[in-house]
User: Fold this.
Amino acid sequence: MIDEILDILKGDRRILLGSTIICTIFLVAVFAPLIAPHDPLAQNLERRLSPPSSEYPMGADNLGRCVFSRVVYGARLSLPIGMAITGTALVIGALIGAISGFLGGRCDEFVMRIVDVLLAFPGLILALVIIAVMGPGILNASFALVAVGWTGFARMVRASTLAIRDAGFMEGAKALGASDFYIIRRHLLPNVIAPVLPMAFLGAGYSILALAGLSFLGLGVRPPTPEWGLMLSDGRLFMRSAPHLMIFPGIALSMTILAFNLAGDGIRYALDTKSRMTDEALWR
Amino acid sequence: MLRYAVRRLALMVLTVLGISLLTFSLLHLVPGDPAEILLRQQGVMPTPEALDKFRAAAGLSEPLPLQYLRWLNSAIHGDLGRSLAVSYGRPVLPEVLIRLIATLELASASLAFSILISLPLGVLSAARRGSWLDKSLLIVSSLGTAVPAFWLGPLLILIFSVYLGWLPVCGRGGLEHLILPALTLGIGAAALTSRVVQASMIEALLEDCILTARAKGLPEMHIILKHALRNALLPLITISGLQFGWLLQGAVFAEVIFTWPGLGKLLVDSISSRDLPMVQGCVLFISLVFVLVNLAVDILYSWLDPRVRYDR
Assistant:
């Protein structure tokens, strides 16, 4: 059993396990209305804070809402929004990084100094500043996380762009009279996007975590929406009498982040021979 | 070395200017008229006359670049304005400084905990590859990086304060108050650091000098501690510096959970109560410390490892 877990954590099976968990959570999100035994918003004050039972598999919260149903519906929010945040940051970062690296010169210098300054800034604090300006809420929180997240992708894509900018096929395309836009779209981006993939998975895990964190602080998703971070924040108040309010959303959140981390690490391992060597040295 | 340090310092100046610009802009980026917001929070009805008078007094009718310079000047001289929250009305700077000390205390304790755990774990698991320690480190560190601090914190309270009754639930005071928040923050950091230590130890143990040391018949303990560990310490310094910056931010969660009177909690509270001068003060100081720590790490690193200077 232990050896099986280790085998998975060591090598390519990380992708398999990670993507299996992600797919499962995705299916749970899609079929939430079929899986959840209760309406996630329906209150049953007679059952408030009741422990797990056959009727309420994960117990009921302080308003008598079914915790299991809320955890299930929480997947509908965390998974797509976390992925959307990272996806948007990836697209913005990749475009800026590719264009900046491709054009080079002053434009590149200017963009990269901005990226340097932003990367030197504590990300979570920057997100909090943006929320302080725009006000709490899920849209603003997502915007803040995109604004913080694109820089890493930009720097990475720029580095890969510089590496292939002068490659033969790029010069060939230029010699054939292709426009800059065409070259970036058809030749550059497809070649520089692969190394970004593992980062995108790790980033999606981080976005889900950060969004839950902001909701936990009362700056993200508003009640009564079923969201894991918000459920943790509510559950904390009833920790003594009803620890199940806090335990189950936490497990769901941790599993999701773990899945994205595993998949990201696994893809990095599969793509990158150098990290494969160090990983092999690490885990044999 | 000097060239590298100068280049690095120039970037820091740029970053600090960026931070100050962002902090200043906060008030003007918030939707609505800053004068009206400030007046309303002081409990004054924003009549046209009151607004005009306030704008003139606070310099809000001047062009923005001039306002920025004025703000920067007073910030450098230690005047960050007054808190708008009802119970405060106090100057921002002293409050922020008091809170900063609490945050630094927490972040340092977490970092110390993280190094204390991860250094022996990483070294031992690298030296005893394939042992149960090596195996369990892999599982625990995978989990440790996935568990959010805002879940771990309440769980630790539940176990150590509620069920076992060993440690206080919240607040700041003696060492016993520090343990749980430092654990909450430090475990995630330790999970990452131990992997870095382990990886760099394995790399260091593959070096030729280790082979030579073994050939000389030196005791294994001596080889690990004297020869390999020294080479493996470099990445630990970098990761610890980065972790410290990360812990400063992550402290927000631990501070809220354990009602630790730090800068992070003050920031979140001020955002909720829309106390903008206080938000400005918190952001300014957290960012400054973060930038300074990163600078110190970079320079220390390039001093310890001369290759870095030529690479960049």
